[in-house]
Amino acid sequence: MELKPGLSALVTGGASGIGKALCLALAEKGIFVTVADFSEERGKEVAALVEKENAKFHSMLKFPSAMFIKCDVTNTSELSALFKKHLATYGGLDICINSAGIATPVIFYKDQTDGSRSWRHTINVNLTAVIDCTRLAIQTMQAAQKPGVIINMGSASGLYPMYGDPIYSASKGGVVLFTRSLVPYKRQGIRINVLCPEFVETELASKVDSKLIGLMGGYVSMEMVVRGAFELIRDENKAGSCLWITKRRGMEYWPTPMEETKYLLPSSKLRSRSSFVAPLNIQIPQSFEKIVVHTLSHNFRSATSVVRTPLRLPIKPDHVLVKIIYAGVNASDVNFSSGSYFSGNKKDLGSLLPFDAGFEAVGIIAAVGDSVKNLKVGKPAALMIFGSYAELTMVPSKHILPVPRPDAEVVAMLTSGLTASIALEKAAQMDSGKVVLVTAAAGGTGQFAVQLAKLAGNKVVATCGGKEKAMLLKDLGVDRVIDYRAEDIKTVLKKEFPKGVDIVYESVGGEMFDLCLNALAVHGRMVVIGMISQYQGEHGWKPLNYTGLCEKLLAKSQTVAGFFLVQYSHLWQPHLDKLFHLYSLGKLKVAVDPKKFLGLHSVANAVEYLHSGRSVGKVVVCIDPTFSQQVAKL
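^ thats the sequence. predicted structure below, dont judge the formating
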């Protein structure tokens, strides 16, 4: 909702503190305000200030641009009269801010009364009245048949315990969950959100021990609270949102979308992304084609060839035959074809030739061997095992990752998505409120890293090369995109992030590694998930020397951590489930490069395309175009 002259707002608790600040801030936008409060003297003063400010925007009005109404928010009849008066005066209600709140005057277990003037009264003002005001605000907005925004004033003590006043903490916790449960009203054009600041310098906070406030980083500025409220009003996507504001970390939403996925279920509309009907007939041929490495080389094309091989039946016990539909292309395909991932010298490696190529794929289970009980023919499956560049592959059942659909987007979630998800959680130990730098961010894994970092509540900086890639990253929500073809990465980081970045997700290597290390903040963590710039030299993968690395890390208590996905196989299934769930909820976008690669004979082209630097998103090969079209129709 655009904050503009002529809108009307109702603010409870508007005579002091946060309520007063919001009344005055709304007036600065030319918005008509009803100030509701129990204090008549102070309430009238605020209304007069609002009216004076509104005079800059309005003249010759037939109704007051601001009015004060004395109201006890625990009295339902007085509340009803308040909303009716506002509707009669302004013809609608655009914004309602329920800000009235009090602390508990007596510790609840020391109270010798029935609590009606102490802890029970606190619950009535802080929670029951908010429920009542929200109810009346919804009814008023519905009666006017206009969209509206309701902001309920919560507190950071509603997100975590406040030991000094558990009743206050309980009441604000109730406000938070009550508000977050009102998302469905968005369908009627009514968005209801909750604002949860830590200590703000008000009369209410003056009763709190100053030492505690100091430990929390000091008071949150009133300006930041107003800015948070206005963000919740303006952003049409915010419904049931809880904005947490602290002096230490600034503004962030709670819980993060990644936390929400632990309990949210997909809606019926979104479940369509998960629905899959198995094809009626899966023909099992006598032979099939696959790609094998016959010569050790970083030149994937010269190192590999497509061969036809007989299908050995029956299926081995505890094994599964998978019909591959999509296979994923990775920068490290050239490392695999050169033998870099095998131990021993190259002379010994020659004895392994030929070996099957490809790391990841999705398809449909075509047959199962004896003793396989939990996997059924016709079910979609993903696999991350050597030999994925094939029409069919037989693998031990323990290596099968059940997935909802055998789509190209799911392929992207495998090596690329899992690397980002697990590396950021385990190696980077990512939390929220940090500055996260992702290199090669428009690639297969980078696209996941930027989104997961953003979903965790971080500021995300991303590097890429080219306008098309920059546009993709902006669409994914990146805060600062650095297109190295248009501006110098080092200059941007030094100017805009003088204190450095907290986390680096690095996949380029070479000069980029040096640049990122120099941009790392004190206590910063850099996670190395690859070094694509070093993979395809004349002599293959050439290790580089990093003189002075230990001294740099020691000086700033920094960490450089390596990450290799194979060593985290025990986490593949839960993280894959999480990624697909985020995708199903519409909270995660999956970019698949639009260039089509069809059939096994196009794999070498796809690998070279990926290393050309032109790809945007995950590069995928459709192994069986006919079958993929059949699945799409189903």
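The mean pLDDT is 91.
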